[in-house]
Design brief:
This protein is an all-alpha fold and about 80 residues long. The chain has one domain (about 5-80). The protein has helices at about 5-25, 30-40, 45-50, 60-65, 65-70, 75-80. The longest helix is centred in the first third of the chain and has 19 residues, at about 5-25.
Length: about 80
């Protein structure tokens, strides 16, 4: 919501995630794709924390985006990566 404190908070969180990914030398576009593809599988606080840029392993993202893996994953399999 533009002009609302909740909107400012959401924007700050989003930008902070991007800057953290950059600081960790993650490929920003791939991190965001990884995040947005996996976030719908998250249901606990631990699930969400595992998606933070500080917790994501770059090798995990590369595996996720390998052509064979990415094209054949189901929703349940996405959660496990």
């Amino acid at each position: 919501m533009a002009g609302h404190p909740n909107g400012a908070n959401a924007s700050a969180t989003f930008y902070s995630s991007i800057e953290t990914a950059k600081a960790r030398d993650l490929k920003t576009y791939r991190y965001l794709r990884f995040l947005f593809e996996k976030i719908f599988c998250a249901s606990t606080s631990a699930d969400y924390q595992a998606l933070l840029a500080t917790a994501v392993d770059p090798a995990q993202m590369e595996y996720f985006f390998s052509p064979v893996v990415y094209q054949t994953l189901t929703k349940n399999e996405l959660k496990g990566i």
